[in-house]
Design goal:
- With 139 residues, the chain is of the alpha+beta class.
- 33% of the residues lie in helices and 16% in strands.
- It has four helices and six strands.
- It has a three-stranded antiparallel β-sheet.
- Strand 2 and strand 3 form a beta hairpin.
- The longest helix is centred in the middle third of the chain and has 13 residues.
Length: 139
């Protein structure tokens, strides 16, 4: 039996130019069923295993990068050791809670960026990512 979430995932994949394979649909179901969020390859792999989706870590990695190239999600580079993927592809910025590996969205229009440099000849600014690093206050 096909669920409404699976139908939406299949439509989302087709609309992004990707063939809705069984594994892509299953991973898209997991990624988008919980709304906007930030996750790593390892976190999605753990969710897939827990949900009974037979998929390797390499497949999850490749699928997330295919979803990124198709514009379904975007990459967040907040640490050198981990890559986060964001299901919210709109222009927005992030807080990163150091020591907790937690990424939070900054409300839209909370930051104004002025005086950006002129890009080199033949280039244009595609996106500006602001990551504000947070840590818990010490007593």
């Amino acid at each position: 039996m096909t669920t409404a979430i699976e139908i939406r995932s299949e439509e989302r994949l087709r609309g992004s130019g990707l063939r809705p394979t069984r594994q892509r649909v299953a991973l898209a179901d997991l990624i988008f069923a919980k709304g906007d969020r930030h996750l790593t390859v390892e976190e999605l792999h753990e969710e897939a295993v827990a949900a009974g989706v037979p998929v390797s870590l390499a497949t999850v990695y490749n699928t997330l990068h295919q979803f990124t190239e198709a514009g379904m999600i975007r990459v967040l580079a907040v640490e050198s050791a981990k890559t986060y993927f964001d299901t919210n592809v709109s222009d927005h910025h992030h807080f990163f809670v150091e020591g907790h590996n937690e990424v939070l969205d900054i409300p839209v229009n909370s930051i104004t960026i002025d005086n950006l440099p002129t890009p080199p000849e033949g280039m244009e600014i595609a996106h500006v990512d602001v990551v504000i690093r947070l840590r818990r206050k010490r007593d």
